[in-house]
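Our preliminary data section would be incomplete without showing what the modeling component actually yields. Below, a chain of 575 amino acids is followed by its predicted structure, encoded as tokens that our downstream tools consume directly.
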Amino acid sequence: MMKYWSVKNEQAKEAIDFRAMGLQEWEFRVLVNRGVDTKEKILNFLHPSMEHLHSAITMKDMVKAGNLVQGVKGKIRIIGDYDCDGVMSTTILMKGLRGLGYDVDYRLPHRREDGYGMQPFMAEDSKHDGVEMIITCDNGIAQFDAIERAKELGLKLIVIDHHQIVRRDGEEVLPRADAIINPHQSACNYPFKGLCGGALAFYFVNYLYTISGQTEAMDEDLIGFAALATVCDVMELVGENRDLVTCGLAQLNRTENIGFNALRDAAKIKGDIGAYHLGFILGPTINAAGRLDTAADAVELFLSDDPSFAEKTALYLRELNQKRQALTTEGLLRLEKQLANPKEKVQPIYILKDETIDESIAGIIAGRIKGKYYRPCIVLTSGKDGLKGSGRSIEAYNMVEKIRESEKYLTSFGGHAMACGLSLRKDQYIAFKLDAIEKSDLDPRDLVPRVRLDAIMPLDKVSFETVERLDRLKPFGNGNPKPLFGATGVYVSQYRIFGKNRNVIKLELFYKNARYDGVMFMEAEDFIAFANETKAPNGSLCVDMAYIPTIDTFNNRNTLQFQIEDLRRSKTVMK
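Predicted structure:
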């Protein structure tokens, strides 16, 4: 697939002598490219600390919510969500409130049976169970009917949610809760808006312990759980989120939480846990509970003090995740067959239907297809009252705005620029698909993937020190991706194919008569086709590389290795 290469060139907001700050030029470029564009921001970025967090007291309704909880005499019920952020939010509130002596329990919606968020029957169940107060977490800001029912029944209600505020005719519409903690409210002056539900739950619990004079008694693991929620809800790892995740990872690497360590062992994670392990191993395992069974299994894992129960539950969640992976692979293969049809493959947006796919993995499959073909993709499957699905998008296509133009065909719809969820009647599928494709307004240039380099760095300028300095910029993730460098005029002298799926390519590279090791994760057939097309008449293979420098440790020997993210034919001729 042809890609458009460019070098980022963001500008600092003030004159900065980066060398005086101990930075190399490439480090400065990487930071500025991520919006770390003042001296103060650079210092905070390089030295993450919880001291950088703003005071939670400045968040709208934080004080009111704290007073309400302190006035509770009876039972409190937490109503969370079935994804990782909802699980960790619930866990944080459960452990935090129990630690302060409150009578507290929780309920989580079932993905298929209940749908997202608090439902009216949950308010009725709470009243029947003698609950005095409900606290929603990672949901609630749009659960108008359920919250109205709770208020009709005389329940106190606090909403802790990070999702966008509902607007009608340009005006904010808020549920009738007693307190709402959500930094997206226009009346909330809290300066950092990018917190997830788990982070907001952590801030609230921390505030409760502070006003109770018991700060030192708060469970230290709660910041680790907030970090897990932040990474797995794909929040931007900038500002307070970077501080929170860095400190949270440090806590998770020394935690004695039985459930977390059982999950770590079940996942066979050795050495220190990083953001990668949270986002790609532990998070998907926690999410699998809510996708294929009940998310309560994951909450109980983190609340447990029984090693035997924790071990069994962790292994069960890993089995669920393996089942989810298998279902994803099967569903992806079926939809790939649809895309074999030339008429489908050339569409600017893919809207695909397969009613055998489990609705819980529709979004995952849509993301895989989007990533492979660089097209916005919506995957629809069978739902309760028709078709239900999820979409994932590319930069040039604001999914929530564009699909809203075809909303007349839908029974429900919501989302943001890069993702959406929707439902529709089965007889509206073709009409919706044709209308959405017609209104996509995508230029062919929008469908060309971008390779955005942070800087050009020839291979001979990379050293072990470069990799060590890169580690200072961790944790990597959304908003702070791994720095990507470019090198031109690199010769590939030979390559070997490894892996049971033939998707690991080891390359021997030469630049200025020096040899280097490279590795690329790519289907063997695709790489061979690229190599054959790119070779010069004399058989030489000269390429430009988009790469990340790494250190390969094998047989206790460290070797500099270039992890190649993309290749293209080079116009540079090495002298």
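The mean pLDDT is 94. Residues 138 and 197 are 5 Å apart (CA to CA). Preliminary results of this kind motivate Aim 1 of the renewal.
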